[in-house]
Amino acid sequence: MKDFFKNRPVIVLFLLAAIILAMAISSIVFEGEATPISDSLRAILTPFRAAANGVSNLINSVYTYMYEVEELKSENRELRIRIAEMEEIIRQSEQAMEENERLRELLKLSERRRDLTFVMADIVSRDSSNWASTFTIGKGSAHGIEPFDCVVNEEGFFTGYVSEVGTNWSIVTTVIDSELELGAFIYRTREAAVAEGDFALMSEGLLKLTYLPEDTVLLNGDVILTSGVGGVYPKDLVIGTVKQVRTDSSGMGTYAVIEPKVDLDKLTQVFIITDFDISD
Amino acid sequence: MYTGFGLLMLILQEYLLTRLKVGGVHPMLGGVLTAVVAMFEGGIAGGAYGMFIGVLQDAFVVGPEGYYALVYFGCGMAAGFICRYMFLKSFLTAGLWSTLITAFTTLVYFLIFYLLTGRAGISALWKTAIPEIVYSVVFLPLIYFPVRYISGNREDD
Predict the structure, then answer these.
(1) Do A254 and A190 sit in the same domain of this protein?
(2) Cα–Cα distances in Å, from B36 out to A128, A216, B82, B118?
(3) What pLDDT is attached to residue A41?
(4) Where are the alpha helices (DSSP H) in A126-198?
(5) Interface list for chain A against chain B, based on CB atoms closer than 8 Å
(6) Which domain holds residue A97?
(7) What is the predicted pLDDT for the residue at A23?
């Protein structure tokens, strides 16, 4: 047994394990900042992962085109009907909703939200864990991105936040991840609540709205937006719509199930909000 | 050869297998790779290879830094030494240790980072953890036969 620990390869292996353990502890202490090993490895791998992701996306798109043409035609017909219905909603809704729907069709994100400063980034890979909902983008601290920066899609829908930053890469925790928790409000009633991820709902692509006021009456389709409370995230970013109201496990309270507006499966590009005006 | 094969398997896992989900989960091949190499090459090589695969998996997968590197290092070393003295080199042994290492890695991860922190309930055990273990071990033949070829070993009679 003593001879085993005098073996040079074994000594080297245990030294490496001790270094990795130290890195692991520092990553917990300095949350959001990448360790040197992780930063170096991911910085080297990011361009290759982007290329591999591009090839994978190309193959997937060819497969989808060849074997799902009929499904696409049907979806196209449904989308035309939905567009007609949405145009009808635009004509009939309040001035603010009309402007939002029209601008979403016509204007670029940066012209619609002049109080926000954006950095555009491509998604280089999706997280290969069954326990989290995250993806990696090809920009990092070298581009002005910092931990906890808010992330939206091209339509301005809340997509997630930056949870870890490297030199030329960042990890985004999505809106349905169980780590997510942020201030929100119901557009129709202006009541405040908390939007948070839930592990059980994550597999269904949903999140929940908790800390609802006692006398709140929610309707299916109610729009939920970020409240901007605390100044961590910008205000008035659309998170999703109410799908269902449920009673919690204690039977004492209720929570709403939210369907996010952003389609995470179809995302290829996101916008990171690196600066914004804090409104009261 | 082992290095290239391990990298190839992890790239396959990240860019193909994540799109082939069964029951909402996809396989995690790191534990299977570590177990099979450890069985053929012994404790020290198993620990070193487990550490290498774990470092790569930590880079690909979001989660606690160094978790997979440390766990696969320990499991690879243990599997390699135990197999050398107590098990025959065979597909069955590889299957047993693949299941043990994958199950240990997944269950400890679930227990420490999700169940005890309240991020998930016990239902995640049979909805996510167990399917992940089973689906991962299904890919044992894809890893076992190439590793056996690379190692130049034949199974013990």
Answers:
(1) yes
(2) 22, 57, 13, 34
(3) 74
(4) none
(5) 7, 9-10, 13, 16-17, 20-21, 23-24, 27-28, 35, 37-38, 41-42, 45, 49, 52-53, 55-56, 60, 125-132, 134, 163-164, 171, 173, 178-179, 199-200, 203
(6) 68-106
(7) 79
